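Notebook B, p. 112. Complex prediction, attempt 2.
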Amino acid sequence: MVKGSASTDEIKMWSEWMGKSEDNRKIAKIAMSEIIGFEFIGPIIEDKTHEWEKLKSVTIEKKLIYRYRRETKGNRLNWIVKIAAIFLLASLIGIGVFYQNMDENSFPTLEQVVEKVSIETGEGENKVLSFSNGAKVVLNANSKITYSEGLLQDQPIDIRLEGEAWFETEGGTSKNRQVFEVITPNGIIKNIGTKFLVTVKDEYSRVVLQEGMVEVLSIRTNENGQTGEERFRISEGEMAEFNSTNIIRLINVNPTLYSSWATQFVEFKQTGMMEFAEYVEELFGVKVKINNANLKSITIDGAIYFRSLEELVRSVSEVTGIPIYQFEDTKTVYIGHE
Amino acid sequence: MNTHLPVHYWDKFVNGDSSAFEGLFNGYYDSLYAYGCKLCNDPGMVKDSIQTIFVSIWERRNNLKNIKSPNSYMFVALRQNILKAILKKDRETNLSAYDIESIYDIDFSEEEIFIRNEIRKDQKKSLLRALNQLSNRQKEVLYLHYFNGMSYAEIEEILSINRQSVRNHMFRAMQALRAVLDLDVMRLVISFLVAFQLLV
């Protein structure tokens, strides 16, 4: 084992160099095992080929089988499809001619009355909107939504968002139907039976998906001025940040840390005390001071429902056995005894 | 054992080359399997999780072009998949749903450690004891860094903790290990001195 120390900048430089290429990573691993004096040996892997065969049968080979079936079945079905298409075309022409010959005034006209509604929130204010189809929107502070009122039950609700809002489609809503279409300057977010958070910032928009599935549709213009459509999907537990030209970041996160201001629910998974402190600072706009450095290594696991800062810290304090307190008239929360 | 992560296959794969899928699987499998076994010590669960994430990336290959760090993406996906599987298993066996600490326990065995220039047999035991006394998070950071060659930025993404926390975990882990190894070397020096004095 080699003794010595490195400065913060040196550690940073070393770490960045390591991740730059796979060759660097290989060299770094050898060097590190020299430095620390030992290395880890991985487990023995016996059935990798079998695992690959298994994977291949449900991915690559599935695709080939599908192609094969499509090609062989195609010949048999070709004629049936062609005949059916001719009948369908003839029927459609017939219906079209029939309606054209009818008096236009013989049908009553039905017009859907749609009204645009805007809702805004100020500093420290949240608003909850419940729709008749069971969907819910929670608007965060300093945010604004504009949506159309008077749409039919099955129509997606178009929402133009500025700021941040939480969207939920539970409560009798079909899990397989699109309920919201959230329009941001950077793209349109379409959901299917989901719980998700959308944040619109100056430079980009962010989606954090807690449940279900979300698709982002982005209209992009290339260097030649041609406009094209790009779609990407976000899975549960993912956070995507995107602007009108690119996806900036797509990572896995703990969604409850982002959505708890709206849901009053947070799930900690091996969350360190430092992370907890940062979370509380950001959520409640307070300062958090950890009095004892030893407490920083403690991690928290579990789920908490809370309505206020007091409830949150009380629950964490009870679970961990660490005193967490706030003096009156101060904006600082203290963790542990001084 | 191949732990050389195949980022070049990733680039080919997300750009439409399906033949790169096998290279991607072969390149990632060993590292993911080893990391997964560290998290849950259940090879069956690890294999199932690896299958799930590879099926997922196959199905979503057209949407993965913008992922900047494939290594982090694969390891995060595996970690989350295994944690979900552990929680699901727990619920089925009526254990506390959030009692992760007791089931998500990283442990190192003697066969997994190779000491360079090993002088004393009990040196390995001391090192092993010191390693297993570290917190789960410290063990995980150490393993990702030294075994998988992950940079701090990648570990930050995999564990969803900030860079400073990664550094702190690493620093504390190394401090603990240094203390053990240094003590061992000291013992060795003393035993040499005693032997030398007896000879004189």
